[in-house]
Task: structure prediction
Amino acid sequence: MTDASSTPPLPVTIHRGDYRPYEWAIPEIHMDFQLDVQCSKITSQMHITRQAAAPAPLLLRGDGLSVAGVRVDGQDWNDWAMVGPDLRIELGERETAIVAVDTIIDPSANSQLMGLYASGGMLCTQCEAEGFRRISFHPDRPDVLSRYVVRMEGDKAQFPILLSNGNCIDSGDGADGRHWAVWEDPWPKPSYLFALVAGDLVATSDEFITMSGRKVALNIWVRAGDEGRTLHAMQALKNSMDWDERVYGREYDLDLFNIVAVSDFNMGAMENKGLNIFNTRYILADADTATDADYDGVEGVVAHEYFHNWSGNRVTCRDWFQLSLKEGFTVYRDQCFSADMGSEAVKRIEDVRILRAAQFPEDAGPLAHPIRPESFQEISNFYTATIYNKGAEIIRMMATLLGAERFRAGTDLYFDRHDGEAATCEDFVRAMEDGGQIDLTQFRRWYEQAGTPRLNMALEQNGAEWTLVVQQSVPATPGQPDKLPMMMPLRLKAFAMDGSDQVVADQVFTLHGAEERIALGRFDNRPALSINRAFSAPVIAQFMRGAGELAWLAAHDDDPFARYEALQQLMLDALVAMVSGGGDDTDKAAVIDAVAGTLTEAAADPAFVAEAIALPSEAFIGDQMLVVDPDAIRAARLALQSAIGRVLEADFRALLTKAAPPASDLSPTAKGGRRLRGVALTYLTAAGFVDAPQMALAMFRQADGMTERQAALAVLAHGDSAERETALAEFYDRYHNNALVLDKWFQVQSWSMRDDTPEAVERLAQHPDFTLSNPNRVRALYGALTGNQAAFHRADGKGYQLIADLVIALDSKNPQTAARMIPPLGRWKRFDEGRAAMMRSALERILAQPGLSRDVTEQASKSLLA
Ligand code: B3K
Ligand code: ZN
Result:
């Protein structure tokens, strides 16, 4: 044996076009785990068959592993070498073999939370995308699928529960207080779906009868004491199983479905076959500790991971460039599920808000990439809003173009054709074409071109005939200077504002060219155009409409999303004018009238009203400007908020005087009612009424659930009243033993509009309850800061300094979470020269650190590109 190299590899760029099939098939893997928090011994026995025509060595990927033994067909084997972190085993002319490799790892030292790690005394795994290679040498690529049999053994007192994928086929007690279990997963799967959990856990159990009459046992495993907070997750799981049968014809395929909640987790959750592992944040919820948004998050993420069983597990990805194949499609599926469970209109508004807040800036910045990237250095950096949320919009557009029935024919064909395979985005599009009978040749550009398309629209009049002219352009993005027009569905309707019945009925036009002309027919006067209804295409639609037309649409449009858009556009126009020093009382008055109209509409859904009348975020206002001026934006937004609050004081006070819906009522109307009360409190506080802090404190104290308690606390946290300190102290005293609620305490302070928020963040980072070891806590404090535009971009650069310091401190511990904090620094081109220079130097300071991870190196260096 030789040690070819022990230096870590330099960041290498992997290209999509370089894909080659692996030289070996591994139909079966038998693993043995001798579990210990500090010293776990693992043997992986791989049954391999050569696929390549010529003899080939077996190249197995490793990350931080050393070899404790190699055997081939039961014999000790010396013909192997380390190639950097990887293991190459020479097998001569062999066509099949049983290769066993032993490794020893220390889960307690694994602070990256990738591979096998310890969290609060239990052991658990996270393998997607490339974490399996931190447990055992393996090809660790998604197109190598194997059946796994896993034997695990450990101390029975410390790890009374032993779980892995599939079914438990045997178990028993061993010597010295140890016990063991054998798990078998009948479904071949890639290594990224492998999972193992060992710990002291208790389950909430239930069952589900599938459409073919099979009984599936359902368990949600948590720490003792948390069982009472799993009921919403369990109901969401059963609803998801039922929904996937009804809507996609997909049945669950094992007799057991386990979910485990862990508190130290890099993302939301993970869809491991038959053993989903979740961040506690997306499992635990009860009225006292979870907001309505938390409840919705639990429901959506449980559904998302469950839906992956088909879109991801039964049909997986050939390589990581195809990530959106499973993620975009699964996000689309969970969005539709949540829409069916609650309010469809509000869900669409929320999803578009997330897309605009997280994905549009990504598409407009140095990290822009198509939903199917061409290259990467570290795949963890590509779990982005583009892959997930824009990916979902692209599936949604296909669903719109095909219509429900043909879309279902397409997905049926996709699942049937590729069941058990590792597929590509191209396979999905082809299934849509064949099953849905449509030509998507031009539509494929959505997979290739990055950047948010712009539609510049104008109305042309010829006598009484009106035509809509749509010009499409796709902006240049890094590496893609020239773009071609995209095919997309544009849903529109035109109304006569004069009460006549002239109308263009709701319809979907398919755009193809750089310029399209849509004949609208006869209107005596300029019609009000309801455009991109339901956000049929993920574009920036630029269409000059006067305040009168927008106000009319805000009051009359029959598509709730378009109504919301009209009111938001009216607000945006007024705000942008105010920021640039213009804007007059007429602009404000038009907004106030429209808000008043929506607020007092008797029949309106309160959830819709709450969404529609809240002002656009500071960040979204900034996105409309050539150069973002965070201070002017905050001032303008507060001024408009204050004006609205003063004029509509009586309506807002009336909302707060009425009894709040009980926290146990999770109907869309009750959730909407609570949200609306939060919005009312925000307006009254902005208006500066002297009793506003008392009202907020009363709401905080009287709340029978977390939605109102958190909303009131967040409003108080912006100010400097005595009530602020009282509420923060009471909240801390009551909840400091509950990690998820304590996150909220950090978060509201980081969201604060106070000038000294960066100093508060600095101080809170020294708080005994702050830790860099828990990603939820890091996101609560620092993620919230980057989302607080005026604080993060404070003119003295303190916000940038804090984030750079964090990235540097966190990188050696948890590079994945550190790298996720970098993109906000990469938006420097959108700011004035002073801020831009400070943002760049923060990135340069990060890059100057020795021994930086691949994750952070890639994000920081790309963020600096002009
Ligand atoms: N598939 C996982 C994400 C894994 C991310 C690894 N860095 C969760 C999800 O999208 O369902
Ligand atoms: Zn997913």
